[in-house]
């Protein structure tokens, strides 16, 4: 799957890199949850809080590069996938349960992201349709 941005093509690899940046963002929520289980202002609390700030700093730098590479609508639509990644961390790391409503909501977010990415792959700069395999 490739998308055109002006003269630049965005490939599946680019979308995967964007998702990796979003995964980094969701790790800040993991460290925040870990910090919340500590005594306020204790050494472990401050360590988790510092880790969260560092993750957010790295994410901010990477996100700037992503919005340079992608159309803003594509970048922000993909950012909605943070919901899925956060749910994955909740289950794997904190043994939370996912309800049917959570699953349906995540499925809708994924479907919307795929639709936007797929639609952008078929459009080229002037709005005319282009074959996705071209």
Summarize this structure as a short list of keywords or feature phrases:
single chain; 134 residues; 2 strands; 72% helix; flat; disordered N terminus; disordered C terminus
Structure description:
The chain is mainly α. Strands 1-2 form a two-stranded antiparallel sheet. It has helices at residues 12-36, 43-69, 72-79, 82-94, 100-122, and strands at residues 2-5, 8-11. Helix 1 runs antiparallel to helix 2 (43-69) and helix 3 (72-79) packs antiparallel against helix 5 (100-122). The protein has one domain (2-122). Strand 1 (2-5) and strand 2 (8-11) form a beta hairpin. It contains five helices and two strands.
As for the number of domains, it is 1
Number of strands: 2
Q: Helical region count?
A: 5
Compute the CA-based radius of gyration: 18 Å
What is the N-to-C succession of helices and strands? Answer: EEHHHHH
Which parts are unreliable, with pLDDT below 50 for 5 consecutive residues or more?
1-7, 124-134
What is the averaged pLDDT score? 84
Helix content class: over 70%
Strand order of the largest sheet: 1-2
- Our measurement of the CA-to-CA distance between the termini, rounded to an integer number of angstroms, reads 9 Å
Main sheet: strands, sense, barrel: 2 strands, antiparallel
- Secondary structure category: mainly alpha
Give the DSSP E fraction (strand runs of 2 or more residues).
Answer: 5-15%
Coarse morphology: flat
